[in-house]
Amino acid sequence: MQNTTAVVLAAGKSTRMKSTLPKVLHLVSGRPLVTYPVRSCLDAGAGQVIVVISEEQKGRFTELFGDQDNVSLTVQKEQLGTADAVRSAENPINKESEYIVIIPGDVPLIRPETLKKLITDTHAKEAICGLLTMDLKDPASYGRILRDNRGMVTGIKEAKDASPPELMVREVNSGIYYVKKDWLFESLKKISPKNAQKEFYLTDIIEIASKEGKRVSATCIKEHEEVLGVNTRIELAEVNRHMRYRILDKMMLAGVGIVDELHTYIDDGVEIGADTVIYPHAFISGKTKIGKGCRIENGAVIKNMKIGDNVKINAYSYIEEGEIKDNATIGPFARLRPGVLIENEAKVGNFVEIKKSTLKKGSKANHLSYIGDAVIGERTNVGCGMITCNYDGKEKHKTTIGNDVFIGSDVQLVAPVEIGNNSTIAAGSTITESVPENSLAIARSRQVIKGDWKSNK
Fold first, then answer.
1. Start-to-end Cα distance in the chain
2. Do residues 39 and 134 make contact, with C-beta atoms less than 8 angstroms apart?
3. Of these residues, 26, 123, 263, 367, which one is catalytic?
4. CA–CA separation, 112 and 213 (whole Å)
5. What is the CATH number of domain 4-227?
6. What kind of architecture, by CATH, is found in domain 246-441?
7. What angle do CA 107, 174, 178 make, to 5 degrees?
8. Which of 373, 366, 368 is nearest to 328 (CA)?
9. CA dihedral defined by 52, 54, 56, 58, rounded to 10 degrees?
10. What pLDDT, in 10s, does the model give residues 165-176?
């Protein structure tokens, strides 16, 4: 298929989405919708992909595809229909390309295998053009496939232009074509806007082929959700559901445990190892990688994390853009902000917030603490209520805590400060100066007791 160029149509105004964002840039399982058909075309073997866009959205699409090999952009200057959109891609097409795949930018569920079958069927039937069709109980606004009494495809009639008998047809056009390049662009010149919308319809090439006596083949797919398009937010939600189940099914077949498929949300691109179990209402997104044998409990939110083997993320923890190494435990109700490294066998407990810090092997902060801009050594205990006072109103400062340190409850470490190895910080202390190794630091007022206090009032 290296002699094939794919043209992805993504210039629509998306008015029914009621959004300033083009519909093909709305997210499906964490990725812009248009990236799915682009990837499927490349995975099917296309040597080049051209995305047709509008001038006003050029910046957004350049940011999305600017550095991707074999993908380029072309602008449709006016919204004059699908045939005009394809025509705008003619000049950028590689000279060595012999065939063109034409595909809407709003069909994220299309599989590479389906595109390959379309190509194989078209060649097998020696057709000038092949199209994907589907049989629907309720064809709604899809274009109807017209056939002659021999069953040969003779045309596609858009629903808004169809007669009552034509509207009864259940076989419909998916909007995906495989066409001989030279014939395609010659045929596009013959299309006129003789329809209700006054647009140049790509579907007219089927009638042109029929009149010229050229063969058009149709590959009818059984799983029609593959070619579900998106025009409204309701349809966006539907393709999101299909994609989510596809991702979860793939993971379960690879050995990942999903307790409740209906209420688990994992983005495309997330990697999870075998024997990891995901509990309901977990949201796992971005470039997250989770190792083997982990346990991700209810309500966990995980974004762009690298998580090792046998890690336990307890319920309702929110963690993002950091790393957790093997056998660590997080939560419940923990918050790991960007830049956090939790090393092997470390523990972060309930209502602990950590930002841009390292908690080394075997250390633990079990409850109600804030740790920011800090490095905490191995086997150190962080007592309940400890905070690192890292911000002086203008700048952030670093706290360094050594190995085997015991920090009592309700301690404030006013950065910049260093706590040496094997030291102890007494509960309730406010530490403003560094503490040497093997020391006990107490920084609190001496307790005073006044007897008969109430009786003297």
1. 94
2. no
3. 367
4. 30
5. 3.90.550.10
6. 3 Solenoid (2.160)
7. 95
8. 366
9. 10
10. 889 899 998 999
Whole-prediction pTM: 0.91
SS (H, E, C) the chain: CCCEEEEEECCCCCHHHCCCCCHHHCEECCEECCHHHHHHHHHCCCCEEEEEECHHHHHHHHHHHCCCCCEEEEECCCCCCHHHHHHCCCCCCCCCCCEEEEEECCCCCCCHHHHHHHHHHHHHCCCCEEEEEEECCCCCCCCEEEECCCCCEEEEECHHHCCHHHHCCCEEEEEEEEEEHHHHHHHHCCCCCCCCCCCCCCCHHHHHHHHCCCCEEEEEECCHHHHCCCCCHHHHHHHHHHHHHHHHHHHHHCCCEECCHHHCEECCCCEECCCCEECCCCEEECCCEECCCCEECCCCEEECCEECCCCEECCCCEEECCEECCCCEECCCCEECCCCEECCCCEEEECCEEECCEECCCCEEEECCEEECEEECCCCEECCCCEEECECCCCECCEEECCCCEECCCCEEECCEEECCCCEECCCCEECCCECCCCEECCCCCCCCCCCCCCCC
Taking each helix axis from N to C terminus, what angle separates 181-188 and 204-211, rounded to the nearest 10 degrees? 100
For residue 218, which of 230, 227, 229, 206 has the smallest C-alpha distance? 206
Q: Reply yes or no on whether 367 is catalytic.
A: yes
Q: What are phi and psi of 24, to 5 degrees?
A: -75, -5
What is the Cα 241 distance to its own chain's centre?
Answer: 13
Exposed, middle or buried by CB within 10 Å (0-12, 13-18, 19+), for 211?
exposed
Instruction: Find tokens 């044998």 and name the residue.
Output: 293
Contact between 226 and 114 under an 8 Å Cβ cutoff? The reply is: yes
**Lookup: tokens for 108:** 């994220």
* Structural contact between residues 179 and 208, judged by C-beta atoms closer than 8 angstroms: no
- HSE, CB side, 13 Å, CA atoms: give it for residue 1: 25
Domain locations in the chain? 4-227, 246-441
CB within 8 Å of 15: residues ≥ 6 apart: none
CB atoms within 10 A of CB 84: 21
- Biggest alpha carbon distance in the chain? 112
Task: Please tell me the predicted confidence (pLDDT) of residue 203.
Answer: 87
For residue range 340-366, list pLDDT tens digits in order.
999 999 999 999 999 999 999 999 999
Average pLDDT, the chain: 94
The two three-digit tokens of residue 161, written as one number: 């232009």
Contact 340, 320 (CB under 8 A): no
